[in-house]
């Protein structure tokens, strides 16, 4: 049910799903409402008509989280089957499946620049997924330094993942080296690159993480 907040009355009744609905999200333009259900599907509802626009089928178990990208063109879904799927909103086609979590994916969010998807899982981890498709599409318009941005982001994700389980001097030193690698790669991004503003922010962020890793490496020596 959709409710009209000022009056508290039902605005648009939507056809009932046969099984529990775990998550909903509005598209940024207000055109669609997405719902994730125990029936393993994601449904897209037209907000003007209240009619079902599409059923997205691909997960093997209940869908616990859905999120639209800031431009509204991509929908991400997280499931009890441990996977994340990316969908084309307009045609309902599956774009990609992200594997890495060991338990159900409970929450999803896109970064404002749409280059990273963040996921939270019952496996007690938060993962950052670089969404490389837009970068790959325009890669030919820039020099090879654009690849360094992707490599830097991947190195940072690797360092963040290693930080979650590090408990020895050797592991913390590996994390230090990985953050240093990520920082060096970000430093090569030229001013002419579309990634330059983000790279400048990332270098500050990476330096804070590097300092944290250095501190833990020193503590591990004691």
Walkthrough of the structure:
The chain has 222 residues and is an alpha+beta fold. Helix content is 32%, strand content 32%. It is built from four helices and 13 strands. The chain has helices at residues 133-138, 145-163, 169-187, 196-221; strands at residues 2-4, 9-12, 21-26, 32-37, 41-46, 52-57, 63-68, 74-79, 84-88, 94-98, 105-110, 116-121, 126-130. The strands form four sheets. A four-stranded antiparallel β-sheet has the order 3-4-5-6, with no helix packed on it. It has a four-stranded antiparallel β-sheet with strand order 7-8-9-10, with no helix packed on it. Helix 2 (145-163) runs antiparallel to helix 3 and helix 3 packs antiparallel against helix 4 (196-221). The chain is elongated, with a radius of gyration of 21 Å.
Summarize the SSE layout with pairings.
Layout: E1 2-4, E2 9-12, E3 21-26, E4 32-37, E5 41-46, E6 52-57, E7 63-68, E8 74-79, E9 84-88, E10 94-98, E11 105-110, E12 116-121, E13 126-130, H1 133-138, H2 145-163, H3 169-187, H4 196-221
Antiparallel strand pairs: 1-2, 3-4, 4-5, 5-6, 7-8, 8-9, 9-10, 11-12, 12-13
Helix pairs in contact: 2-3, 3-4
